[in-house]
Amino acid sequence: MGRPPIEFSLWDRGDGAFSPAVAPRITFLTRRALWQTCLRPDLGFPDAYAAGEIRVDGDLIDVLTTAFRATDQSPWQELRRRYFQWLPLPQGNSPIESRRNISAHYDLGNAFYQLWLDPEMVYTCAYYADATLDLARAQTAKLEHVCRKAGLEPGMRVVEAGCGWGALALHMAQHHGVKVRAFNISREQVEYARRRARELGLNRTVEFIEDDYRNIDGRYDAFVSVGMLEHVGPDNYRALGRIVRRSLSPHGRGLIHSVARNLPGPMNGWIHQRVFPGSYTPSLREMMEVFEGAGMSVLDVENLRLHYARTLADWLRNFERHVPEVTRMYDEYFVRAWRLYLGGCSAAFAAGILQLFQVVFTPARNNHLPRTRGALYGNGTPEFWEP
Amino acid sequence: MGRPPIEFSLWDRGDGAFSPAVAPRITFLTRRALWQTCLRPDLGFPDAYAAGEIRVDGDLIDVLTTAFRATDQSPWQELRRRYFQWLPLPQGNSPIESRRNISAHYDLGNAFYQLWLDPEMVYTCAYYADATLDLARAQTAKLEHVCRKAGLEPGMRVVEAGCGWGALALHMAQHHGVKVRAFNISREQVEYARRRARELGLNRTVEFIEDDYRNIDGRYDAFVSVGMLEHVGPDNYRALGRIVRRSLSPHGRGLIHSVARNLPGPMNGWIHQRVFPGSYTPSLREMMEVFEGAGMSVLDVENLRLHYARTLADWLRNFERHVPEVTRMYDEYFVRAWRLYLGGCSAAFAAGILQLFQVVFTPARNNHLPRTRGALYGNGTPEFWEP
Predict the structure, then answer these.
(1) Average model confidence (pLDDT) for chain B?
(2) pLDDT tier at A86 (50, 70, 90 boundaries)?
(3) Which among B125, B147, B163, B345 is annotated as catalytic?
(4) Dihedrals φ, ψ of B109, to 5°?
(5) A279-334 pLDDT, tens digit each
(6) Same structural domain, A210 and A76
(7) Does residue B382 form part of some domain?
(8) Which whole number is the average pLDDT over B95-121?
(9) Does B95 touch chain A (CB under 8 A)?
(10) Which of the listed residues A186, B131, B304, B333 has the most CB atoms within 10 Å of its CB?
């Protein structure tokens, strides 16, 4: 693990031996927790933490950021990275497996997510364009940033792959006058999104479809997908590229927003097996599989890594306020697991281990392109190269 | 070739058979020209054109854009792409070969380039931020865009790999108060750049070094390289990444600007053998070899494809004004070859075959990053995540 500035202590030292001031400190409360962590850190540590056999003193995100920075270049990580193709990936991404994977996380109950997400229920990286934005306003800023990047204009037809609880689809229809077809395989999310569309009187302009992205049909002026690629699996990137390509009109533009990494490697075992079954966060190089060979051209890539560190920290703060309700809804194991997931992911973004890329692309021959990206930053309407 | 809306005619039809109104038209003036073109279009056509055995009626860039759009997805291109790893690449990119490759193009004589480049002698893609900019102002806008992306602040130390005639290095020192070390292996360019530095009184702040990028030493706050990656060769991308990484301070930022393509494939034979020996234009996926594995994180990618189509069109217009001088300096073969190179490259960018990527990156752990890219578009000074 290197030598991170964290105090480690064991089950046999009484708590009285430490003053609270020595935090950051990680205490292994059982022998099993220590062994599990040593044998397979990425799975053993979180499992033991969720079981209540590890205690972390100090700010959880800070302690984990420090630990990640110390361990990211350890020989263990290097070994995992080098031989990861032989590690078993128990969950696949066929249409049937995808249904099960998605349901396991996103169908935990809308009431749970409502406790700690923003009012629009956006469960992806927000955009804190300036330091004064709170979570809700940063999520709205993100939706708007995506709409501008996709070049939305009134009357356009838009398809969304993996629409969560529908916030982006509804925002696009309400604020940009576009027609949207939004696909998602989480039943609970789709039901929620349809109800919201009816409440907002948008059920004629936004259609929520409970179906796999592989079944997207039709032609659109824009393709957007925010936080779905993580669930697609690298074996399906080329197929996704073909679907995107056939969905885009000649002047169409697309945006894919995804958690990513600086270099390919195995998923964190705990995230892959317990939190997001079947998930994979690609490197930018791997993401290019989607576009290369499908006749598409990348226009713009932006890394929003530190925005996600902040988003997750805000989610964790909201979550902590509702621990009693969450404990009643599930149990203490669940609370600890979710605390570690939210805090651990925030730390992974802060430590530079995870990245968040927004990639904008278009069919290779499209010359109806803005000269600059200035319009994304409020500098009027874009000036196009060709009409 | 598909069926492009171009009239093809042969040596045995008198010119009188056509009215000028039938342009676009391509005339093969000899049997050899036709055979050469059929046998190996990417080398035979340009060789025959340069030899004066092919005539193009109509606007050269328009005719070639039309032809490229028709042929880009032809079976011939598909075959080349699929089997390109077995095509011989006669020129390598060792330090000695690089010297020879670079000299062959860039040491043609400064007087020649001065005829048709802008006054600052910038021989890379300009940035036509709005439609009113002429070549000179668009080149200055590009230099400024690069400086903003690299996050220059007074007092910083900057290293430039492949500095051409020194315009960017001098601009950075003059307008951003930084100290620059600029590397280049073209003797004529370095001599020109040193003279300019003395004329501008910048010879204490800008050091021009006639040496290979592989010999860059020291630590810098920014690494910039505009138009050199095309000459590095994919086998050297990982080594370049290590050089960049060791050159950057923990908060340092880098920018690499390069001609690229949407998917890997063989170089156009004529460009590779006659125009830029040893050159290779990578896909974005291939470019990622530089960053992945070197502990760097990509922050921003921008595609300036249509800016380069326009830049090359402006160069060609200037070139055409000076054809008598160029013919006296070289010969008619040279004039036709350069006309085809400038016009053909402009067409390749317009047709969506070539791309131009600016990639901004930083050491993976650097959190001293601007929240948004707004400052690139004149929205004040950037607000940073961490000091």
Answers:
(1) 92
(2) low
(3) B345
(4) 120, 120
(5) 999 999 999 999 998 999 999 999 999 999 999 999 999 999 999 999 999 999 99
(6) no
(7) no
(8) 91
(9) no
(10) B304
One domain, residues B264 and B118: yes
Per the CB < 8 Å rule, is A297 touching B351?
A: no
Residue B201 and residue B66 share a domain: no
Q: pLDDT at residue B146 above 90? A: yes
pLDDT tens figures, B290-326: 999 899 999 999 999 999 999 999 999 999 999 999 9
* 3-class DSSP state of B261: strand
Question: Chain B within 8 Å of A130 (Cβ-Cβ)?
Answer: yes
Taking only residues 341 to 370 of chain B, the set having a beta carbon closer than 8 angstroms to any beta carbon of chain A reads 350-352, 355, 357, 364-367, 369
Q: Which of A115-119, A169-173, B88-92 has the lowest mean pLDDT?
A: B88-92
A76 and A121 co-located in one domain: no
Closest Cβ–Cβ partner in B289, B296, B369 for A306: B369
Per-residue pLDDT tens digits for B174-202 = 999 999 999 999 999 999 999 999 999 99
Whole-number CA gyration radius for chain B: 22
Least CA distance to B305: which residue of chain A?
A: A299
Contacts with A84 (C-beta within 8 Å, 6 or more apart), sequence order: A264, A265, A266
Catalytic residue flag (residue B345):
yes
Burial A90-125 (b: 16+ CB within 10 A, else e): ebebbeeebeebbbbbbeeebebbeebbbebbbbbb
Task: Please judge whether A371 and B263 are an interchain contact, meaning their C-beta atoms are less than 8 angstroms apart.
Answer: no
CA distance, residue B231 to nearest chain A CA (Å): 21
B302, A300: Cβ pair inside 8 Å? yes
What is the distance in angstroms between the Cα of A373 and the nearest Cα belonging to chain B? 8
Q: Give pLDDT, residue A93.
A: 86
**ipTM for the complex shown:** 0.95
Taking contacts as CB-CB distances below 8 angstroms, the residues of chain A near B369 are 306
Total Cβ atoms within 10 A of residue B158: 24
DSSP codes joined into one string, B52-72? T-EEEES-HHHHHHHHHHHHT
For an interface test with B, give the residue of A281, A288, A361 to mutate (most B CBs within 10 A): A288
Contacts of B176 (CB under 8 A, 6+ apart): B147, B152, B153, B154, B156
Rounded Cα distance, A376 and B171, in Å: 27
Q: What is the mean pLDDT of residues A7-13?
A: 84
State whether B374 and A377 contact (CB < 8 Å).
Answer: yes
The pLDDT-based confidence of B84 (bands split at 50, 70, 90) is low
Range of the structural domain that residue B313 is part of: 96-377
Residue B244's contacts (CB-CB under 8 Å, 6 or more residues apart) are B223, B254, B290, B294, B296, B361
Both B145 and B245 in a single domain?
A: yes
Residues of chain B in contact with residue A291, where contact means CB-CB under 8 angstroms, are 262, 284
Sheet holding A7-10, edge to edge: A7-10, A25-28, A54-57
pTM of the model: 0.95
Say whether residue B305 is in contact with chain A using an 8 A CB cutoff: yes
Q: In terms of Cα–Cα distance, which of B222, B243, B220 is closest to B95?
A: B243
Query: Number of structural domains, chain A?
Result: 2
Claim to verify: residue A13 and residue A134 sit in the same structural domain: no
**Is B149's Cβ below 8 Å from some Cβ in A?**
no
Show the tokens assigned to B55: 């005539």
The domain boundary, picked from B26, B56, B86, lies at: B86
Say whether B262 and A350 touch across the interface (CB within 8 A).
no
Q: A244, A284, A360, A381: which to substitute to probe chain B, counting the most B Cβ within 10 Å? A: A284
